[in-house]
Design a protein that fits this description.
Helices cover 81% and strands 0% of the residues. The protein is mostly helical and 94 residues long.
């Protein structure tokens, strides 16, 4: 098996693709949110289908921004982990 560092470098491992929520509540909240969005879509469609399309574009934009935020959080967490390891190694040298 190829080492993780090489998988990350060459794009063979994408952390977001392996994300599994650890909280049971996450699935429930997500299911409820999806139901609310579907109900809202139906109401928008009854009023004006162009509103439904506009709302879909807004959601897509929010999802794109969220994806960028998660990537930044991952990078910051990785950096913090690396700094922590450096600190641990420095303490061992003392």
């Amino acid at each position: 098996m190829e080492k993780l560092i090489y998988q990350l470098y060459y794009g063979g491992f994408v952390p977001a693709e392996h994300y599994e929520p650890c909280l049971k509540e996450h699935k429930r909240v997500k299911r409820e949110q999806n139901m609310e969005v579907e109900e809202f879509y139906k109401k928008l469609d009854e009023v004006d289908s162009s509103l439904k399309k506009a709302y879909g574009r807004i959601l897509d934009s929010q999802h794109e921004l969220l994806s960028l935020d998660i990537a930044s959080i991952f990078a910051d967490g990785f950096k913090m982990g690396a700094r922590l390891m450096m600190e641990v190694m420095e303490q061992d040298a003392d």
